[in-house]
Amino acid sequence: MSDSSLNTVADDSSDPRSTAGLAAGRSTTAAALDAADPLAHVRERFLLPDGVIYLDGNSLGALPAGVPEALRDAVHRQWGTDLIRSWNANDWWGAPARIGDRIGALIGAAPGRVVCGDSTSIQIFNAIAGALRLRPGRGVVLADPDSFPTDLYLADSIAGLLGAEVRRVPVGEAAEVLRADGDSIAVIAYNHVDYRSGELRDLPGLTAAAHAAGALALWDLCHSAGAFPIDLDAHDVDLAVGCGYKYLSGGPGAPAFVYVAERHIAAFEPALTGWHGHANPFGMEAGYTPAPGIERARIGTPPLLSMLALEAALDAYDGVSMAEVRAKGLALTDLFIACVGDLGLETLTPIEHARRGSQVAVRHPEAHAVMAALIDRGVIGDVRPPDVLRFGFNPLYIGHADVVEAARVLGDILETGAYKEARYAVRSTVT
Ligand SMILES: Cc1ncc(COP(=O)(O)O)c(C=O)c1O
Ligand SMILES: Nc1c(O)cccc1C(=O)C[C@H](N)C(=O)O
Predict the structure, then answer these.
(1) Of all protein residues, whose CA lies closest to atom 8 belonging to ligand 2?
(2) Any idea which architecture 3-36+321-429 has in CATH?
(3) Under CATH, to which class is 67-317 assigned?
(4) pTM of the model
(5) Contact in structure between 192 and 232 (CB atoms under 8 Å)
(6) What's the ipTM?
(7) Is ligand 2 within 6 A of the CB of residue 195?
(8) What's the pLDDT tens digit per position in 253-296?
(9) Fewer CB within 10 Å, N or C, the chain?
(10) Coiled-coil intervals in this record (predicted)?
(11) Is the beta carbon of 394 within 6 A of some atom in ligand 1?
């Protein structure tokens, strides 16, 4: 869907330049897009409350319909009845690699290159350490000063422990720095999609630039895994991490995942050498020998209930083509960008499809109050400092009519000034 086709639809109404005329045009567009949406039926695979338009799936994904039953089974049958036998009988032991492979299928990784477990923060720590050890003699980690903060905190910590240096280089300057100063750089560690603006970074280009300098590329896929195709193997990415609770909808605290390119697995030495990553875990040996495959990236006992919830959540992708997810994500964000443009608001998110993830960030000086008013009216997004309203669009459960309705509510709140009384109460996002 191009921006120009969106704009011409508004001309169909009697007075296309009026707010009502624009809204009518957008609604007509949305209805047509929903009618033709090949993913429309996937919405039934999620349980969403009535009266809510959920645009925060880029922070915590909605509840997939199969998860409650999967958890009931995990608790009552697997834990309650099968007890310790579940490690074999229900293959709890195999869950990290089994679920890793399913995530791998969504991010372009062949089986045996992804394991699921622990948090993104822990995976970042382990992956940066692993990257530094794969490039001995090079002590620099390149990281974006605008990365999600945990990425920077962990990079600083591991660099301190290993005597490395974190150089904060904005993503737009990374290729130049790699050309000029590549000899010292061990790894570039960037976010694939910027959590604030929704900008999609040039993963293939920067990965190639890192390789040309002899460095590795580590990508944080938190805001891209499950939202569109990524093709890690095809782009020769070295390492990647991501979380299970955003677009993958694995639930609060869902385990994260790590990808290691096949060519690095045998030499990959994680910092955290827990017994689940041991070659012979039940040998109970005193010394650590890493497992031969990707299982060496496992650490300790995984949070099985969360992991099984994530596994059930991934059923929402059954029979779904990631190319269709991408096409719909772009159509949804195109439409929302057009709608907020009608309201005269400034969008931070790039217009170019090649530079856009699956969220739209809108600036407003009273962002917290505006979001509070939106949430009061059932449109759930969030806020990031200093003045950014974030709206995430998961194509599996958001429709085009939702987009237009969310924008209509936003327009109404701004026009009536209803936001002036509102209080933003989402604890995790209060500044
Ligand atoms: C890019 C990015 N990395 C990491 C995280 C979080 O890591 P963790 O799941 O360990 O809290 C987030 C969001 O919370 C994120 O947006
Ligand atoms: N991980 C989160 C959490 O533990 C509490 C509240 C929100 C989150 C988020 O996912 C925030 C998200 N990564 C962001 O892009 O800001």
Answers:
(1) 59
(2) Alpha-Beta Complex (3.90)
(3) alpha beta
(4) 0.95
(5) no
(6) 0.98
(7) yes
(8) 999 999 999 999 999 999 999 999 999 999 999 999 999 999 99
(9) C
(10) none
(11) no
